[in-house]
Amino acid sequence: MTQTDPLMETAGAVRTGIIDCDVHPSPRSMDEIRGYMPMPWKDRYQGGGRGFYSNPVHGSRLDAVPPGGGPAGSDPGFLREQLTEAYGTAHAILLPRAFCNMHPDPDYGTAIAAAFNDWLAETWLGEYNHDGLFKGSITVAHQDPQAAAREIDRWADHPHFVQVMTDSGARAPFGQRQYYPIYEACERNGLPLAIHPGTDGMGVNVQPSPGYPTRYIEWHTCLSLSFQAHLVSFVTEGVFERFPGFRVVLVEGGVSWLPALTWRMDAEWKALRSEVPWLTRPPSEYVKDHVRLTTQPLERPDSDKHLLNVFEAMDAGSVLMFASDYPHWDFDSPTHAFPKMPDELRERIFSENARSFYGLG
Q1: pLDDT band at residue 15, thresholds of 50, 70 and 90?
Q2: I need a labelling partner for 160 at 20 to 30 A (CA). Which of 56, 123, 178, 216 fits?
Q3: Percent above pLDDT 70 for the chain
């Protein structure tokens, strides 16, 4: 976060058209979520997050706590003032944190996901959304893919849900066939699947790294490993051949690893393509056609030139979409987190790639 882009300095004075692809709304209390849950889940649900690997300092920006009280991200009016009006945001893509994917009981996970969807639709996408600023994500519990598919179908016609979302924490790589009902439902309804960090190594899910890290800094740094493993699985298992309309958004998984990973996959495919005969093209072509990445956390080298070289190598003008991760501690400001870029590239990353991908007006 070393340089201000002068072309963005007027943000706030005008509506810049930014589409922020990772904004986290929060219920004011867990009672809001319990209100949408049937028994016995209503009595059982305690809310909460991962349980361990919590940020030892603060998980959210201290200045994002609403003046009227409540958790950061729980006041739509204050969020509008501090985030979307300050930066001239055209649309904020909302990703609630239900942490429903770590529970061994699939019915419990599904009940949590459904309650969060009901809450989001009635509040942030309903009562608080007079101008259509907020766009939502349908939370699914991937422990029960059939139930997840029904949940997608339940909300697919809602005018402000624009994607399906799940945590990167899982018991198996996402290319495997047990997840196909989710991808069928996404394709059937024209919705991409967003994958967000959250329950890696928690509950029934495996760690993306060897064994269990000791501290939050190690766990948080290694989250990108999970995204790389899921992406390789999507490609090599042939998911994009089986579901040609299926699209994926990798949210908050880092970005700079993408060029090296696709180079490696392409090289492996040249020698080992007999093992995956269903792949008719180099892996990098599937990624370019089916996958988008959001920017936060943007790995920021000391040299802007090095970051721009990474952007060129990954074809950022096609695959990268801006995200702030508001209100979390490692929030990326649209005016400070990026180096000065050519106008066309900046427009693609901050607006046009997401506008096209989500079909936003």
Answers
A1: low
A2: 178
A3: 95
| pLDDT for residue 214 is more than 70 | yes
Distance of alpha carbon 256 from alpha carbon 238, whole angstroms: 24
Residue 14: the pLDDT is: 47
Confidence (pLDDT) at 291: 98
SS (H, E, C) the chain: CCCCCHHHCCECCECCCEEEEEECCCCCCHHHHHCCCCCCHHHHCCCCCCCCCCCCCCCECHHHCCCCCCCCCCCHHHHHHHHHHHHCEEEEEECCCCCHHHCCCHHHHHHHHHHHHHHHHHHHHHHCCCCCCEEEEEECCCCCHHHHHHHHHHHCCCCCEEEEEEECCCCCCCCCHHHHHHHHHHHHHCCCEEEECCCCCCCCCCCCCCCCCCCHHHHHHCHHHHHHHHHHHHHHCCHHHHCCCCCEEECCCCCCCHHHHHHHHHHHHHHHHHHCCCCCCCHHHHHHHHEEEECCCCCCCCCHHHHHHHHHHHCHHHHEECCCCECECCCCCCCCCCCCCCHHHHHHHHHHHHHHHHCCC
What is the distance between the alpha carbons of residues 95 and 64, in angstroms, rounded to a whole number?
A: 17
Tell me how far apart the alpha carbons of residues 319 and 340 are, in angstroms, rounded to a whole number: 19
Q: What is the pLDDT of residues 27-69, one digit of tens each?
A: 999 999 999 999 999 999 988 766 778 888 888 888 999 999 9
Mean pLDDT of the region 263-278: 98
> Phi and psi at residue 207, in whole multiples of 5°?
-85, 145
User: What is the spatial distance between Cα 220 and Cα 253, in angstroms, rounded to a whole number?
Assistant: 10
- From first CA to last CA, the distance across the chain in angstroms is 31
Token representation of residue 155: 């909300």
What is d(CA 32, CA 124) in angstroms, rounded to the nearest whole number?
Answer: 13
**Helices 258-272 and 283-290, packing angle to 10 deg:** 140
Q: What token pair was written down for 330? A: 């490692």
Predicted model pTM: 0.94
Asked if residues 199 and 102 have their Cβ atoms less than 8 Å apart, the reply is: yes
Pick left, alpha or beta for residue 7 (phi over 0 → left; psi -120 to 50 → alpha; otherwise beta). Answer: alpha
